[in-house]
Amino acid sequence: MRRRSSNIVAFSCMFFILALQAILPISSASLQYGFYDYDYKCKRTNVELLVRGVVAKAIRKDPGVGAGLIRMYFHDCFVRGCDASVLLDPTTANPTPEKTSGANFPSLRGFEVIDQAKAKLERRCPGVVSCADIVAFAARDAALFLGRISYPIPSGRLDGRVSLQSEVLQNLPAPFFSLSQNEAFFANKGMSPEEMVTLSGAHSIGRSHCSSFTNRLYPTEDPTIDRSFAGILKGVCPQNAAVDGVVPQDIVTPNRLSNQYYKNVKAHKVLFTTDQNLMSSSDTAAMVKENARNQTAWKAKFAAAMVKMGNLVELTGPPGEIRKNCRVVN
Ligand code: HEM
Known about the structure:
Layout: H1 2-23, H2 47-61, H3 63-77, H4 111-124, H5 131-147, H6 168-171, H7 179-187, H8 193-200, E1 207-209, H9 227-236, E2 246-248, H10 260-266, H11 273-276, H12 282-293, H13 295-310
Antiparallel strand pairs: 1-2
Helix pairs in contact: 2-3, 2-4, 2-5, 3-5, 4-5, 8-12, 10-12
């Protein structure tokens, strides 16, 4: 009899926990959907909607900023986890933060959008919303406005106090990498080759500086690049140019986050060695072809991979903090 009643208690507890999880889905790394909905100080502010408004305005003015925000999220999360370490400005104590790495400077953009959202949030509910979460929300919103890709993302990340230029190239793949090097860098973050292929679709928006791909044009042209496409690129990016020009990643639909990227890969009209190398193994080539064929399926995979990238969280308590200003530690 006693065993039966304890079974009932155990079953009821389990049911209660499952029901609670259904209402408040808990993601890994103790992130939570709607994390700020339950914050007492922020109860009059819809935090995620506020960020969305700031991002919408910025993208209306310049869609390129949306591309910058999606890239910023990737560059933040792959180095020390999603902790806004990429946002920290140089100081006398730390003259070379991540921002000063060649992978980020001068190409990374969108910092002002994060500053604007943060300033608004600090006025409404000071000291509550982390810069790392603002970056994650902003990237999610950019995907919505540029790609009609919509997904909820859990939050509750903390901001880091450490940001080192020296860690950037150890963690972010370079555009001249082989397929296996690229896969290894993603695997290092727990991301599969399929997720790597899926996320590379972000190269359907935004721009690149010539210096990121001229190794494919000079001194000899990469045989895997379409010849007429290479000709166009050479026009914008002459050899030994004094100024580092910029070109759109996708000349077909430069501001639309879409599966056009995979069509470009198939047509050999992509900028980086890493992009074209997706065709260099039968496994990844099959993924490229499938994504080129099925935009709806690719969008769903993209959303899932973006959420997964956001679970790269290393800080779950002190010294993690909520910065007052995203560019400096408290
Ligand atoms: C697979 C390995 C990757 C490599 C080697 C790579 C490399 C690069 C490089 C070199 C640029 C051009 C920077 C410049 O010269 O201006 C760029 C731009 C960009 N990347 Fe990636 N990337 C990779 C993956 C990703 C991922 C996973 C995302 C996001 C999900 C992403 C999003 C973007 C976006 C949106 C741009 C355009 C940025 C802008 O217009 O400001 N990339 N990437």
